[in-house]
Design a protein that fits this description.
Helix content is 42%, strand content 15%. With 252 residues, the protein is of the alpha/beta class. The protein has 2 domains: 215 residues, P-loop containing nucleotide triphosphate hydrolases (Rossmann fold, 3-Layer(aba) Sandwich), CATH 3.40.50; 35 residues, no CATH class. The chain has a 7-stranded parallel sheet with strand order 3-2-4-1-5-6-7, with helices on both faces. Helix 6 links the parallel strand 6 and strand 7. Helix 1 runs parallel beside helix 2. The longest helix is centred in the last third of the chain and has 21 residues.
Length: 252
């Protein structure tokens, strides 16, 4: 079971849009996703309730609610057979709360908008994830989405320059499209709409979906170390030297 956390303390960055579209994509693939809505605004929960009986099912957990009659772990449990868990986090998450939200996350996605305020908020978020939540770059767990982008604008150029300084992969650039709005109003995801209407937007999701299927955590560290060792062996062999074999490190 993969746990995907969509996080950015800055409100309005598009966290819910990303979360519900991921949930609908995995539902369409029969992966029985669970959507945990931690946001008291309950936008993701309202979207799930708009869905029709014939649509691919998405299991909803209103994580923002507290039920004193049961334990928190029981309240947040997901059904057997769930293959993807998508966590929609609230705005104004404090740095001290990030370790709990991300501790068991296989992938962490940070959406950021092309505005000066959002760029500075993203910088603080990434810093907190790296220093407070102890998310390691080498584990391939953390990535950024440039969201609601209008290309060929000065602000977009500023955003790309800033993102390039973070040494965090930018796994998708999503355009400022009304297709996301229309889909949300109907309780749909992009992948459930007519392809000819959303083909451009669907194409922009492909790198994100591919990244989500890549290994993370210790598996990613081991894979990267093994690839580096293979490169060294290949370089040594090409130079006619005896190959150097090293054991891949498990920890960064």
């Amino acid at each position: 079971m993969q746990r995907i956390v969509v996080l950015n303390p800055k409100g309005g960055s598009g966290k819910t849009t990303v979360a519900i579209n991921l949930a609908s994509y995995y539902a369409q693939r029969g992966e029985r996703p669970a959507l945990l809505d931690y946001d008291p605004q309950a936008s993701a929960a309202r979207w799930v309730r708009k869905r029709q009986a014939g649509q691919a099912p998405i299991y909803l957990i209103n994580a923002f609610e507290r039920d004193n009659r049961v334990t928190r772990a029981f309240q947040l449990r997901v059904p057997d057979g769930t293959r993807r868990v998508i966590v929609d986090t609230p705005a104004a998450v404090e740095a001290a709360e990030m370790p709990e939200l991300t501790a068991n996350a296989d992938k962490i996605i940070v959406p950021v908008l092309p505005s000066d305020i959002d760029i500075h908020a993203c910088a603080r978020c990434i810093t907190s994830l790296l220093l407070v939540a102890k998310v390691k770059r080498t584990e391939n767990r953390l990535a950024i989405i440039a969201n609601r982008v209008r290309r060929n604008t000065r602000m977009y150029q500023s955003l790309t320059r800033f993102l390039g300084t973070l040494d965090i992969p930018i796994v998708a650039t999503l355009r400022d499209s009304q297709n996301f709005v229309r889909a949300a109003e109907l309780g749909l995801g992009l992948h459930e709409m007519k392809h000819y209407q959303v083909s451009e937007d669907l194409a922009s999701w492909e790198p994100l979906l591919a990244w989500l299927d890549e290994p993370s955590g210790r598996a990613a560290v081991a894979a990267a170390a093994a690839a580096q060792a293979a490169d060294k062996v290949g370089t040594a062999a090409a130079a006619g030297a005896a190959p150097l074999v090293t054991a891949p490190a498990l920890f960064a």
